[in-house]
Structures are given as structure tokens and as C-alpha cells.
Amino acid sequence: MRAIIIDDERLARAELRKLLLDFPEVEVIDEAANADEGISKIRNLHPDLIFLDIQMPGKSGFDLLSELESAPQVIFTTAYDEFALKAFEVNALDYLVKPIEPKRLADTIQKLHFSEMKENKSSSENSNNSLLAENDQVFVKDGERCWFVKLNEIRLFESVGNYAKVFFGPHKPLILKSLNALEERLDEKMFFRANRKHIVNLRMIEKIEPYFNGGLLLELKGGEKIEVSRRQTVKFKEMMSL
């Protein structure tokens, strides 16, 4: 598993590198001393894992994640425990408080193995493709709240001007992305453009009903009812038929 350490403290990076020597399955391929450097190296090297400090000069670790369209597994490392709740809100794999104890790191690596067994390997193999894979994790930030969510957990995208509302679980945050820009990154085998305002996750459809003017009405697992335009209904029926 290829990893990058992102921390503004050189000694902290060196200490973590030393601790990770006991875990040959984790290969540290690079380091970064700030968020901007970290973003560049993540985009260029496509690591499977990042060890990410939270409080850094300039941008924080959370700011770094908010600028990535998709992100690898994240293990936060910080001298403060006050961010623990927020870290788990974004679905980080774990949260290590400095100075990192070897036993605590071992527990985290074990958790990493368990997570890796559950993951579809195609996510990292397709990381250079423009399309996002269903197991890719996307970072969603809305004001002070942030989430780290798998693409296959998102049931609906709704256009709101130049923004898009993202529906997953009970949450509906806004992101600064147009629906057209999102459509270019989404696999049409999984996400379908129902009309000008909505893109739906085909796997989240619970009920399909005829609608007026030859259209269809889709009911999603979250209870949302989305109209499929007459033009898109033809395409939908072709996709879903045997």
C-alpha cells in the first residue's frame, strides 16, 4: 500500500517513517510539508493512503481534502484530540494523536488491512481515468460541515444554479459544481441524467411508474420522486431493457 505523509513538522514525518518500518506492507512513497504540496503529490502519485496532519500553516488537513475530487484512505495525525469527531464525520480510517504510540499505530494498520479486504481494487487501478469508480471516495464540504462519502452511497445530484445538492443518507449538502461538470465524471452505467435538474443513482431506484406526457416517475430509496423527461425516458427504457 503506497502512502504519503503530509505534516508541516519535519521531525514528526521522520518519526512516523521510522515507526512504519515495522509495517513493510505500507510503502512511504513521498512526503509533503503543507496542504498545497500534499494536493499536488496526491494528484501526481495517486497514493492508496495518506497520513494527514490537521493543523498546518495556511490550509488545514480538512481544507486539503475539500480540494480533492476523490481521495485515498485517510489516517489523521495530530497533536490535538479536539478534531476527532470531525475526522470521523468525514469517514477517515483512523485518528492518531501525537506522539504516536507503536501499539496504537499497529491497531490502525490492522484496521487498514480489514478495510482493504472490503474494498474493490478497481478504485485505485482506475485512478488515472476521468470517470469516478463506484468505490471512489469523494470529499463533500458545505460550510463548516464535511463528509467523506463513497460514490455508490450517493443516490441523487440536484442542480441548484451553479451548485449541486448531493443526497446521501440524511444529508443534502451543496457543492460548487454544475450538474454538467458532474455528469462528465460519472459512469453512465451507474448514474443517469433523468432531466435538466437531476442525476440519479440507478441502484437507488425503488419504484418506477408511468408519468404524464410519456415520461416516467422514479422513487428513490430516500423517498425522493424524480421525473424522467420524455426524451430521457426513451434512453432509460433502452438501458434497462433486456
Termini separation comes to: 40 Å
Highest CATH level, the class of the largest domain: Alpha Beta
Query: How many extended strands?
Result: 15
Summed up, the domain count is 2
Report the major sheet.
Answer: 5 strands, parallel
Supply Rg.
20 Å
Assign an overall shape.
Answer: elongated
- The percentage of residues in β strands lies in 25-35%
Examine the secondary-structure arrangement and name the CATH architecture of the largest domain.
3-Layer(aba) Sandwich
CATH topology of the largest domain, by name, is Rossmann fold
Helicity range of the residues?
A: 25-40%
Q: Largest sheet, order of strands side by side?
A: 2-1-3-4-5
Overall mean pLDDT = 87
H/E series: EHEHEHEHEHHEEEEEHEEEEEH
Individual helix count: 8
- The CATH homologous superfamily of the largest domain is called Response regulator
Please mark out the parts with pLDDT under 50 across 5 or more consecutive residues, or reply none.
120-129
**Class based on secondary structure composition and strand pairing:** alpha/beta
Quick structural overview:
The protein has eight helices and 15 strands. It has 242 residues and is α/β, with parallel strands linked by helices.
